[in-house]
Amino acid sequence: MQTKTLAKPPAETTILVTGGAGFIGSHTVVELLNAGYRVVVLDDLSNSNEESLNRVRQICGLSAEDSEADRLQFVEASILDETALERMFAQHDIDGIIHFAGFKAVGESVEKPLEYYWNNVGGTLVLADVARRHGVKSIVFSSSATVYGDPDEVPITEMAEKHEATNPYGQTKSMLERILSDLYVGDPEWNVVLLRYFNPIGAHESGLIGEDPKGIPNNLLPYVAQVAVGKLPEVGVFGDDYPTPDGTGVRDYIHVVDLARGHVAALDWMAGRVGTGEASDPYSMTGEPAADGSRRGVGVFNLGTGCGSSVLDVIHAFERACGKTIPYAVKPRRAGDIAENYAACDKARTELGWEAQFDLDRMCADSWRWQSTNPNGYAS
Ligand code: UFG
């Protein structure tokens, strides 16, 4: 089986997006369709809703009657389901993969380590195995700044040492970075990009798609949004005695649309359309380009804004966005949290030609539009 290539026009390229009905996945599908790609979403809907894809069709003008409607296909299946994956690769002429599917709740991963390792690590092994049987060896992996653990210094560059993760969720991200890198070591036809996300928030400006957490949110932004909409009484601020300007935790919040566009940039890089391909850090391995000019190797990129914002900065930005006061109370620190992290973004800028465009106020405004018009998420 000949290895598939990304070095052709997007209109002739089909990208498999696992987890494409989820928060980051659905926004990425919009940007892929906007860039002209054909997309197959594979999702088991365990933590997402198919309605998100109807909304994506609405945003991209792909109604059922549209001649282009088949540019977005949906397959309901788990990445652990080898038979379903075989069938999907046989039916669709997939050229590359953006792999989001996975469990993502830090706290839950401590309670359910077997489920997390099985689904995230096992599922990725099944996916990669079936993919290579079909000649598909280009994969963008949804990694996380969590692989840096408690950083020695900020901003964090891709050269920073990885530290042991404090929970099984973080371990799966680190392990999968290793596993996918080793695929390239063993077979230099693999083309792997590891994108280390900082804290994605916000929503599409249409207000049609956004984050739809099941139950009480674990993360700051959806929690703040649910307080703003009146579903929860107040925000608990986890610690105000960190060595940061206002004592609360500092993170690099990035607009989900910026993050989504980072994936499109990664495909351009893999196709050899942008970047020098020179590895500027020891972790990246850049191999000989293929005859068609597409890249082979492993690229590692931070996707952040380079700006740190505290918990109180976020609460106040959200107050500006929604025009209401957000009640909050300081609580003890949350186990496993770090004081501060934010990204060095130079590598993504120079290699991928990508840079975040939207600031915290815009992230909160878009998040509020989604939350206020869809108070019950896709269920409403
Ligand atoms: N926080 C609160 N109250 C809340 C929730 C969070 O004060 O109700 C604080 C946290 O203590 C932290 C900040 O808000 O200082 C951000 O917390 P999040 O839970 O929103 O995000 P984290 O930075 O803890 O985790 C995120 C992702 C993980 C990923 C990690 C990588 O959720 O998947 O970034 O750094 F691993």
Question: Please, could you describe this protein's structure?
Answer:
Helix 3 runs parallel beside helix 5, helix 5 packs parallel to helix 6 and helix 9 packs across helix 11. The chain has a single domain, classed as 3-Layer(aba) Sandwich (Rossmann fold). The model has no long low-confidence stretch (mean pLDDT 96). By secondary structure, the protein is an alpha/beta fold. Helix content is 36%, strand content 16%. The longest helix is centred in the first third of the chain and has 21 residues. An eight-stranded mixed sheet has the order 3-2-1-4-5-6-12-11, with helices on both faces. It has a two-stranded parallel sheet with strand order 7-10. The site of uridine-5'-diphosphate-4-deoxy-4-fluoro-alpha-D-galactose has 21 residues, from helix 7 and strand 8.
Descriptive tags:
single chain, 380 residues, alpha/beta, Rossmann fold, eight-stranded mixed sheet, two-stranded parallel ribbon, 11 helices, globular, binds uridine-5'-diphosphate-4-deoxy-4-fluoro-alpha-D-galactose
